[in-house]
Amino acid sequence: MSTTTAFRAPEVTARLAHLVGRVREAVSRGLPPQQTAELVADRLAPHMGAPGLLTDEQCVGDPSCYRQHLLHAEHDGSFSLLALVWLPGHQTPVHDHVSWCVTGVHRGQESERRYRLVPGSPARLVATADVVNPQGTVCGFAPPGDIHKVRNATAHKAISLHVYGADISRIGSSVRRTYQI
């Protein structure tokens, strides 16, 4: 999977600091992954599309592939928050995740195809839904129900925020594995 990632000390806006505090409170409850994802989604939703959340630098894309900007990595490794900038045509491979994940569309629109793994020999993927996520859409999920492909099918930049139940600055990626279709 080709992405560019900016993993350096991020600038933190007041609104972003507030969001991090709300996510920290939800994660600190120590609930099972799916419940944690749902709580974090509730905390993330009011911030989607809000002015002053991201700096101009955190909204910069890369012409060759979607770009990840690390916004926060919790000191104990319990979660991280990233902004993903999608220019027209950018997409992920079909993939799943190392932990629970919450995504919210901050600007623009993303298209998503969701899959489920059908056991067998060999196991195979079956598409279960095609979803268009406009600005303000937030969803949370946890493995094993987290296989999908995301793309920007529009002619405009899209920005999404992703909260992962892992320290992406340490492990490098939220992707556990990719799938060939």
Automatic annotation (TrEMBL):
There is a cross-link at C101-Y164 (3'-(S-cysteinyl)-tyrosine (Cys-Tyr)). One of its GO terms (biological process) is L-cysteine catabolic process. Keywords: Dioxygenase, Iron, Metal-binding, Oxidoreductase, Thioether bond. Pfam families: CDO_I. One of its GO terms (molecular function) is ferrous iron binding. Coiled coil: none annotated. InterPro entries: CDO_1, RmlC-like_jellyroll, RmlC_Cupin_sf. Gene3D superfamilies: Jelly Rolls. SUPFAM superfamilies: RmlC-like cupins. Fe cation binds at H95, H97, H148. The keyword Metal-binding applies. Belongs to the cysteine dioxygenase family. This is Cysteine dioxygenase type I.
